């Protein structure tokens, strides 16, 4: 059997720069992805969208994003991941910018589909690069950069978007966010150029077969765990601004501060736990058991916090609950992809994370539509919060009892 040429690691400084830019890309990914939730209080009214219609528009992103994560993961194991990343970012930036010109539900859904197409590169691509270039002793910190960006993206987006929304309306949010994302391509072309050249010179003559990844029971179980982790996070990202402004009576400024608070805590928690987990691994602790425990605790805390959001009385109590939710999300987001990378190993990381992420992001398809239907036909958000809290509660049991022992299974 032919074997892939061994990968020569780049310098520590260049890899650090690449990890930083990948983190920044994920930050922009979630700024752009979450812009629709920020725009919702004014967009929904101007475009005359029902809660169900808005839910379909949000869900449309995932109709393409979830299945394409599998395809893109397969491509990352076979083609130059650095070039694929640039193409994906350019595509989603343009889709974001053009969303500022939509005139109704149909055009909004079309651009959400294109956004999902572009953003599908983010996690399979970054995981492929991390598995190939980042040593195990730094796995937690590298994934923590992405996990923190996953939180800081919505935080930055909420703070900037809320300010833009209050001053100029909802359309400039998309124009500005899309233009800023396009600027990311400039440093990426420079920093990734040597790695891109090495990737092109090292032909992937023996990519890990996707069928062999799909034969692994663990990847499907990880996908379900990923679903449970995503469900609550996507609910807060998409529906919390609308719930706070339209149902709870908070101003846009108050909504911006409260939402940003929880997301900022999530990002800080991810960075801190990434560094701590690396120290534990360096100290000889079993990495798989440690990361499983963090996922169980994160899911359990998230379930309790999500239920408490609905019953929070006043801004102070709500802020405290969102801080707890942020801590929980910081624990899970740091470890979710790191565990997948452990199972997969360097050769299969792209395809594994692509399949895992495809299953996990079905939460983005089901959740927004379910919430919209519940709000429209059951008369409020109470049942929606109950369902959203139940999913991560079941997820905690899943990570504890169902996920198999965590070690590399793809040779």
TrEMBL record:
What is the membrane topology here? Multi-pass membrane protein
**InterPro entries hit by this protein:** MFS, MFS_dom, MFS_Na/Anion_cotransporter, MFS_trans_sf, Tet-R_TetA/multi-R_MdtG-like
Q: Pfam families, from UniProt?
A: MFS_1 (PF07690)
Entry superkingdom: Bacteria
Major facilitator superfamily (MFS) profile domain spans which residues? 18-407
**Where primarily located?**
membrane
Span-the-membrane segments of this chain are: 12-31, 51-73, 80-98, 104-123, 144-168, 174-197, 218-240, 252-273, 294-312, 318-340, 352-375, 381-400
Keyword annotations: Membrane, Transmembrane, Transmembrane helix
Where is this protein found?
Membrane
List, alphabetically, the PANTHER family matched.
FI19708P1-RELATED, SOLUTE CARRIER FAMILY 17
Q: What is this protein called?
A: MFS transporter
